[in-house]
TrEMBL record:
InterPro entries: Cyt_P450 (IPR001128), Cyt_P450_E_grp-I (IPR002401), Cyt_P450_sf (IPR036396). It holds the Pfam family p450. This is Cytochrome P450. The chain crosses the membrane at residues 6-24. Keywords: Heme, Iron, Membrane, Metal-binding, Monooxygenase, Oxidoreductase, Transmembrane, Transmembrane helix. Gene3D superfamilies: Cytochrome P450 (1.10.630.10).
Length: 173
């Protein structure tokens, strides 16, 4: 007779454990991130965020329709990444010209930190003294006129290889 209540007891224990785990993790995530005021945006699903609203043949039209509903600046979650979408030319000018130093940094993602040597390459490093020096070295040493001209023969060879490959793969009409 006591064994009849055992599965029910396990079920109740599991539900209580999962609900307490969910509440603690939510509280921990809220305390970990600073309190930010984000623009309004559409509802989102867990894990994929707003990706389901952009999955169409013409995602730019989906963004246009969302901007008509939520305004020229809106908040979307693309998977795990929080994204601000600006669809107004005045707001874009404000962000890109006037407030550019506030928006210039790149997100620090664990995968880029692992693959790109703790984000010390030019593509993923944070804006600052180090990035400006890396950019200067690249422009002066790698992208100078002398260096670009030194690769002209290789570029011509690769272009001719591409053209011959395209000719061999196109059907005769």
């Amino acid at each position: 007779m006591e064994n009849q209540h055992f599965p029910f007891f396990i079920f109740i224990s599991l539900v209580l454990f999962l609900s307490s785990f969910f509440l603690v993790s939510q509280k921990w995530n809220k305390s970990k991130s600073p309190n930010k005021t984000l623009p309004l945006g559409p509802w989102r699903l867990p894990f994929i965020g707003n990706l389901h609203q952009l999955m169409s043949d013409l995602p730019h039209r989906s963004l246009r329709n969302l901007s008509k509903k939520y305004g020229p600046i809106m908040h979307l979650r693309l998977g795990n990444i929080s994204t601000i979408v600006v669809s107004s030319s005045e707001m874009a000018k404000e962000i890109m010209k006037t407030q550019d130093l506030h928006f210039v940094d790149r997100p620090q993602i664990m995968s880029t930190s692992i693959i790109f040597y703790d984000c010390t390459d030019i593509g993923f490093s944070s804006y600052g003294y180090y990035w400006r020096n890396m950019r200067k070295v690249c422009v002066l040493e790698l992208l100078s006129t002398k260096m670009v001209k030194s690769f002209a023969s290789i570029q011509q060879e690769e272009i001719s290889n591409l053209i011959s490959s395209l000719r061999s793969n196109t059907p005769d009409t």
